[in-house]
Inverse folding.
């Protein structure tokens, strides 16, 4: 069973102006993500990457086509429990501390207090934020916010981790830290990584799909793609 299966996925949006044709964000997209791999979803801004991820998580409905996660239709309640997600521009309640923020999400996920406490301790250590656990998020740097966002995505032990532009806006040192963390996370679960940065896909992914204007341009291992294109 593949971690993610997409067949003939199409998504159109109504135009905001009367008389104009609908806008096609995805046009017959098909792909598979194997369990246990880091899969790169590469393309320029506006190519359809985020639309695809939203459909996989049930946040948006496709116009037509098939989308499955772990053998079940995208949006299925049980499937949502097995997905961890870090959006491109996450919003955090900045008056909360790191541990309060994680506790809030843990309660929403239905975790018991004792188990939640252990997971928070472990994940703050994994992302290197143990010493900042009682600091309010408004005092965090961009890199620290990305790391606490990754901890949030991992809190309920998901089988599939979806990351949308996880290093956007970070300085080189922060990019290095987040990439190393993603590599570690990818050793235990499937990671689907959306990015528009070729070097990021090259550094992290087992396979890469290049998408533009909602259509597949190419798909292969990073080194093979680099030699072909």
């Amino acid at each position: 069973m593949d971690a993610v299966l997409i067949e003939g996925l199409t998504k159109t949006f109504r135009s905001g102006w009367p008389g104009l044709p609908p806008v096609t964000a995805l046009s017959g997209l098909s792909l598979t993500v194997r369990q246990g791999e880091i899969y790169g979803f590469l393309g320029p801004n506006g190519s359809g990457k985020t639309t695809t991820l939203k459909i996989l998580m049930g946040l948006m409905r496709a116009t037509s086509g098939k989308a499955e996660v772990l053998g079940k239709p995208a949006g299925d309640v049980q499937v949502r429990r097995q997905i961890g997600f870090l959006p491109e521009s996450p919003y955090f309640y900045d008056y909360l501390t790191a541990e309060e923020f994680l506790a809030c999400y843990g309660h929403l996920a239905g975790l018991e207090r004792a188990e939640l406490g252990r997971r928070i301790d472990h994940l703050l250590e994994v992302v290197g934020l143990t010493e900042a656990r009682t600091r309010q998020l408004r005092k965090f740097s961009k890199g620290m916010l990305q790391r606490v966002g990754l901890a949030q995505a991992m809190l309920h032990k998901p089988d599939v981790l979806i990351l949308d532009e996880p290093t956007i806006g970070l300085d080189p040192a922060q990019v290095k830290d987040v990439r190393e963390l993603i590599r570690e996370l990818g050793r235990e679960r499937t990671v689907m990584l959306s990015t528009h940065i070729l070097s990021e896909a090259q550094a992290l992914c087992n396979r890469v799909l290049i998408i533009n204007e909602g259509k597949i341009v190419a798909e292969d291992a990073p080194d093979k793609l680099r030699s072909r294109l």
User: Anything to note?
Assistant: DSSP finds eight helices and ten strands in the chain.
